[in-house]
Automatic annotation (TrEMBL):
Gene3D superfamilies: 3.30.420.40
Entries under PANTHER family matching the protein: TRNA N6-ADENOSINE THREONYLCARBAMOYLTRANSFERASE, TRNA THREONYLCARBAMOYLADENOSINE BIOSYNTHESIS PROTEIN TSAB
Source species: Acidithiobacillus thiooxidans (Thiobacillus thiooxidans)
Name listed for the protein in its UniProt record: tRNA threonylcarbamoyladenosine biosynthesis protein TsaB
Annotated region described as Disordered, given as residue ranges: 202-221
GO cellular component, one term: cytosol
Residues of the Gcp-like domain: 27-127
Annotated GO biological process: tRNA threonylcarbamoyladenosine modification
InterPro entries with a match to the protein in the record: ATPase_NBD (IPR043129), Gcp-like_dom (IPR000905), T6A_TsaB (IPR022496)
Length: 221
């Protein structure tokens, strides 16, 4: 049996990305996701030689990330899935960030605004090659992040250029500044779950993964 055709999107950060069947597109354009996402989906499907009726599922990066960006991604995934009666695979955007590197052990950290960060530790599973969450994803001030003291790690995400001086440790070899969660990683994670027997969820069950409570005045910058 051939693999399912899954359309994946992630809009949780400044990067807007779409992937399907080995074709992917990404554009860093803060505050423009609502304008560029649907045309990007159309282009990627066209390049892959597919149409919406060919899809078997939708995968979506659900955050944590910018409130506006996460909402755009989730609502778009819901609309597409509901229109076709497709299952949806919610994927943590921090896990997608960790899956986008060859580094086996990573400290993912995204700028959460308000002098806070979204942070999590991921270590690659030796059997599957996929990043596995250690402990939990959390939102907190950068000074409250307690990175592991044992092991060798690499830093990823938009918070590292802002707070790397607070996170200097002998077991952190370095960090990558321009790293974003990407739809091709969301797709790979969703496909692995499908092959493991996960059938996804209904579109109406798809929810943003904000970590912290959403306040009406919160806006993605």
């Amino acid at each position: 049996m051939s693999d399912p055709i899954i359309l994946a999107i992630d809009t949780a950060t400044e990067a807007c990305s779409v992937a399907v069947n080995g074709v992917a597109e990404c554009q860093v354009a803060a505050n423009a996701h609502s304008q560029i996402l649907l045309p990007m989906i159309s282009r990627v499907l066209q390049r892959a030689g597919l149409v919406l009726t060919d899809l078997d599922a939708i995968a979506c990066g659900v955050g944590p990330g910018g409130f506006t960006g996460v909402r755009i991604g989730v609502s778009t995934a819901q609309a597409l899935a509901m229109a076709r009666g497709l299952p949806v695979y919610p994927v943590s955007s921090l896990q997608a960030l960790a899956a986008a590197t060859v580094q086996p052990s990573v400290l993912t950290a995204l700028d959460a605004r308000k002098d806070e960060v979204y942070a999590a530790v991921y270590v690659q599973d030796e059997r599957t090659g996929l990043p596995v969450l250690q402990d939990e994803e959390r939102v907190c001030p950068p000074g409250a992040v307690a990175w592991p003291q044992a092991g060798i790690f690499w830093g990823l995400g938009s918070a590292w250029p802002l707070y790397h001086s607070e996170w200097q440790q002998d077991n952190v070899l370095g960090w990558t500044e321009d790293a974003y969660p990407q739809a091709d990683a969301v797709l790979r994670l969703a496909l692995a779950r499908h092959l493991g027997g996960d059938e996804g969820c209904r579109p109406d069950q798809l929810e943003p993964h904000y970590i912290r409570p959403f306040l009406p005045q919160d806006q993605q910058k």
